[in-house]
Write a structure and sequence with these properties.
alpha+beta; 45% helix; 9 helices; seven-stranded mixed β-sheet; single chain; 284 residues
Length: 284
């Protein structure tokens, strides 16, 4: 139920921000200028810009609390509250900016966060990665034993719909030469439909392995499943409601886990340089 509420929230919240931005823009230009309209516009347009930039600009990570965006949203909220005379008028005038401000806090502290990930006993440093089975882009069965003999980076990503995931893959592609010099196998895994994975593999025509976690069986086995983790409405594009929590596992040539990143915030992810440092340590 918790994740289902998150699914609805992330689909609705940016739309509320867009609606309030448009209406307050009209108020500012078509009616008499008031600071409460300006404050609400600053808060709402900042929220819209934040989500828009995630899709337009390839950003693989943000701060857990984006300071600039949060400051602007709070400034707009404060401006609306203390604007001349507004405290003596209808309190409903403050409702839009209050909803947006509280919505931003909820987004940062509730939606963005994965709970209890560090208690996952399925992924532990120095343990052997268990036998896991996937499908490649040709729907052929492939398992983790195929990658024994070389170090391997397993990157579980949510799907093509996730802009941060796509930016992370692009970032790793830019580090391709440095990673391949270390003889590492780079494996990207998602529960998304094969068609989307094929498009991604075609886009990055490098020596990467793109696999599908059919029915999220591996995600469940590793305890990294995100039930109802897809934003509401994306099911119409063929995605299943359940997905995976972003996870990175690095194994040595014997399949022993030498690094695991189980981020507790979907916007906070390791840098590719971290992978190279781990590989250097594992081979020394």
């Amino acid at each position: 139920m918790r994740n289902l509420l998150k699914s609805f929230f992330i689909s609705i919240f940016p739309l509320i921000g867009l609606y309030v931005t448009i209406t307050n823009c009209l108020y500012l230009f078509q009616e008499s200028f008031e600071f409460r309209y300006l404050g609400t516009f600053v808060s709402s347009s900042t929220i819209v810009f934040f989500f828009l930039i995630l899709f337009i600009k390839p950003i693989a990570r943000t701060e857990a609390i984006p300071k600039i965006y949060t400051s602007l949203i709070f400034l707009g909220f404060l401006t609306s509250i203390i604007s001349e005379g507004v405290l003596y008028q209808d309190i409903s005038n403050l409702l839009p900016v209050t909803i947006l401000f509280l919505g931003w806090i909820i987004y940062l502290k509730w939606y963005s966060v994965f709970e209890k990930r560090q208690n996952n006993n399925q992924i532990k440093i120095d343990n052997l990665l268990p036998h896991l089975e996937f499908e490649n882009i040709n729907k052929e069965k492939i398992n983790t034993s195929s990658f024994i003999g070389n170090p391997a980076i397993y990157i579980f990503y949510r799907g093509n719909w996730c802009p941060l995931c796509m930016a992370q893959i692009k970032e790793i592609a830019e580090q391709y030469k440095g990673l391949k010099q270390r003889g590492v196998s780079i494996i990207f895994i998602s529960p998304q439909p094969h068609g989307y994975t094929k498009k991604l593999a075609k886009k990055f025509s490098l020596d990467f392995t793109f696999l599908k976690d059919v029915d999220n069986k591996v995600a469940r086995k590793l305890n990294i499943i995100s039930e109802n983790g897809i934003p509401f409405g994306f099911q119409a594009l063929g995605y299943n409601s359940d997905t995976v929590m972003p996870t990175v596992i690095i194994t040595d040539k014997n399949g022993k886990i030498v690094f695991a990143d189980q981020t507790d915030n979907y916007r906070v992810r390791p840098e590719p340089e971290t992978f190279i440092q781990v590989l250097n340590s594992a081979t020394n």
